[in-house]
Amino acid sequence: MRSWSAQNVPKLPGESIPLRLYDTSAKQVRQTDPGPTARMYVCGITPYDATHLGHANTYHAFDLVGRLWRDAGHEVHYTQNATDVDDPLLERAAQTGVGWQDLAEREIELFRGDMEALRILPPREYVGVTEVVGGVAELIAKLSAKGVTYSLDGDVYFSVADAPKFGQVSGYDETEMLALFAERGGDPDRADKRHPLDWLLWRAERPGEPAWESRLGKGRPGWHIECTAIALDNLGAGYDVAGGGSDLIFPHHECGASEGHAATGEWPFAKFYTHAGMVGLDGEKMSKSKGNLVFVSKLRREHDPMAVRLVLLAHHYRADWAYVPALIADAERRLARWRSAVRLASGPDAGELLARVRERLADDLDSPAALAAIDAWAEAALTGGGSDPDAPALVKDLADALLGVAL
Fold first, then answer.
1. Which pick of 40, 98, 189, 367 has the fewest CB atoms within 10 Å?
2. Count of CB atoms within 10 A of residue 291's CB?
3. pTM value?
């Protein structure tokens, strides 16, 4: 599947700082330690509606991760999927009378445009599930050969009893798991399952639903296994960061980690499980099911996309926050001040500012503190402070390279 266009990222002078991130499974901030190539997988959209601000918050967070790694001299191997066949997509297509493939294609194209406008660096591989059904089926067959699956009326389930590390990503107890499993696409009440938390790997063909021929029979993949298969195929086990919104901690990342462990014997399947916070509107989490969405496409038609990006940067990536229109107005004022400052012939020395921005971003992506540092430099420059003719250009480059903001 086609990704989207990348912009050139300026090379900054001086020394970078190793990135420290919060690892959900360890419940603490730890230093990332990638090799020459840093490997990252971020779970993509189910394309039955347009990109909303919650999506943007997630992909923006992991864009910062990639930018910090690049600044440290790493090549970044980033993979993302698109769940271009799944129950919510099929349900929306039926409701609207649009073919499910047409709906997916339309919304994925809109997503590409939104990501490009926000200057989110693209993944190396952008993979639709429909492109890899055969590979997913092969992985399920491999798991079956290891004795960790069972069949139920043609469907294939992963047996939680055969997942010795299950629970180590989320840290949730069984009561919480069961509640979230039912809420987030699981089927804890299905009759004849061995355990309520056993999860679906392969869905046998149902009347009126898309299905593919495979060694498992005709059907389609379950949700969790698709990301495991795509990550394994492109990044291998033990990759550096598995990312997504905090609503993916359980069951999605929990199940995927156990699938990867069973398939490869390697634990952890990803070195870090890192999650972005939820964005709300009117006191509730922003979600397609609730319909309380602020669409990125609408915001970027009405405002400079860089102001939208600054709204995201003004919140720590792990924080839950609520969108209100005043946020975009504040971001537009900030953007105007920064642009006025970097157009000056000179300004305060920016070497210390670069070091400060690197320091704050390297500390679990503390973007609000990074913005405050640039605010202080811009204020000093606009009030006549400093005489360094190279400073405005350096500030413009650091905002671009580290924050993704084009000034």
1. 189
2. 8
3. 0.96
